[in-house]
Specification:
Helices cover 43% and strands 26% of the residues. By secondary structure, the chain is an alpha/beta fold. The protein folds into 2 domains: 127 residues, 3-Layer(aba) Sandwich (Rossmann fold); 119 residues, Hypothetical Protein Tm841, Chain: A,domain 3. About 5% of the residues have low confidence.
């Protein structure tokens, strides 16, 4: 069986790396005042964050439509896939998985009616965001290239995504508030008190794990969380080089293994804002 891995742009996987590993990325949509852009395709990250910082109106994000997913699955089948593992952002945060599921079901039924060979499509709700499933997707794609079965690849990426721990540090709560993820009162109090909450993902949704006064103390705490994490693999995602370097300074003294680095794309960046960064820990089993 030839297994192909599909994901969406909120995995924040670099397109060159995806091409190298044979990963297909379906882009979500970002809307700036009526102008729409495919995440990671029509606008680079540097331009996006420049526009975000000066935009009078909060950009809107939307999922790919069912037809886009269907076209994607049909193309990878045409290219030789006999099985597909499709891994996506938490279903509690986005309708992306739902669109992918509808497309997969429609395509499967149509192929059955046309008496075409069955091509199983395994849909996986990562229940996380960004490199929290982007890194598992990369590792799973490497296994697919080595000839692992559909179930082996799917089980592997599901296990990694389920076990990964997410720690996000935002420079401001303004964008979460504008995006409707927290109240204006919460954002205002956080700004007045210089609170830098460390956010995480639980049950597929964003939660506040800890509240720390000042960014420097929050960064130090991120290093402590890694030191206590029994780390097997570690990924870092940031909106810019400065935010990435800030995290690396506190992580390197406590972890000397490989750190897979990602750049936060436009969809995640819409809510995280500039100078945001996250760590994604896969613990040892």
């Amino acid at each position: 069986m030839t297994v192909h891995v599909v994901t969406d742009s909120t995995s924040d996987i670099d397109h060159a790396r995806a091409t190298q590993l044979g990963i297909t990325i379906v882009p979500l949509i970002v809307d700036f005042s009526g102008q729409t852009y495919r995440d990671g395709v029509d606008m680079d990250n540097h331009t996006f964050y420049q526009r975000l910082a000066t935009a009078a109106q909060m950009p809107k994000t939307s999922t790919p439509d069912v037809g886009t997913f269907r076209d994607t699955y049909e193309q990878v089948i045409k290219d030789g896939a006999t099985g597909i593992v499709s891994v996506h952002i938490s279903g509690a945060l986005s309708g992306t998985l739902n669109a992918a599921t509808l497309a997969a079901n429609q395509l499967t039924e149509d192929r059955q009616r046309a008496r075409q060979p069955a091509v199983p499509i395994r849909l996986i709700d990562s229940r996380t965001v960004s490199a929290g499933f982007g890194y598992p997707v990369i590792l799973a794609a490497e296994r697919a290239r080595n000839g692992d079965s559909l179930d082996a690849v799917g089980d592997y990426v599901q296990r990694l995504a389920d076990s990964s721990k997410t720690y996000f540090l935002l420079d401001t709560l303004e964008y979460l508030q504008k995006g409707g993820r927290i109240s204006a009162i919460q954002a205002g109090v956080g700004a007045m008190l210089s609170i830098k909450p460390i956010l995480g993902i639980r049950d597929g949704i964003v939660v506040s794990l800890e509240r720390v006064r000042t960014r420097s103390k929050a960064l130090a705490r991120m290093g402590e969380l890694v030191a206590a994490g029994n780390v097997e693999s570690l990924a870092l995602a940031a909106s810019d080089d400065g935010a990435a370097e800030d995290l690396l300074k506190v992580v390197r003294p406590v972890y000397d293994g490989h750190i897979e680095q990602f750049r936060l794309g436009a969809v995640i960046g819409t809510y995280a804002g500039p100078h945001a960064a996250g760590l994604f820990v896969i613990p040892k089993h």
